[in-house]
Amino acid sequence: MFGVEVGVQPTASAASAFADFYRVELPGQVRRAGLLLGSSATANDVVHEAFIQMYRRWSQIAEPGPYLNRAVLNGCRDVARRRNRDIRLLPRLVDRAADDAPQESLADALATLPFNQRAAIVLRFYVGLSMREIAQTLDCRPGTVGPWITRGLEQLRQEIES
Q1: What is the DSSP string of 102-116?
Q2: Are 85 and 42 in contact (CB under 8 A)?
Q3: Cα 85 to Cα 3: distance, rounded to the nearest angstrom
Q4: How far apart are CA 94 and CA 102, in angstroms?
Q5: Are 75 and 33 contacting, i.e. CB atoms less than 8 angstroms apart?
Q6: What is the pLDDT of residues 26-80, one digit of tens each?
Q7: Under a CB-based contact definition with an 8 Å cutoff, are residues 69 and 137 in contact?
Q8: pTM (2 decimals)?
């Protein structure tokens, strides 16, 4: 069920530790993924898939927090890539006039940003990570994070003011 390998049975203490970790981390991870993806349903799917991956490797993971953060971020990145590919491949079904409507929420405005800019802004201002931690999480150079945030904030400002 849920893609978990049959026969993978953690010890009772490991299962208890995983359950505790799950209860603590789930709400925050779903909120972060929701901000990145603009959909709570998709965010739930991505986060639960990351937890399934962790469960399979629980005894081998030395630092579960960073592992989960990276797994969720990578899942969000994959969803964003698929969406971008679908948008390029499929004709737009909505009226172009609807695109000119003002943004009604921060989530709508965030959704207009490229994934890396959106991720950097969410990780900086929502999660509170340092520039170095964001660079490590996004697997980029620390000097790349600042321009992503600056450009993203400028685009957000334009979206919200228009």
Answers
A1: PP-SHHHHHHTS-HH
A2: no
A3: 26
A4: 15
A5: yes
A6: 999 999 999 999 889 999 999 999 999 999 999 999 999 999 999 999 999 999 8
A7: yes
A8: 0.60
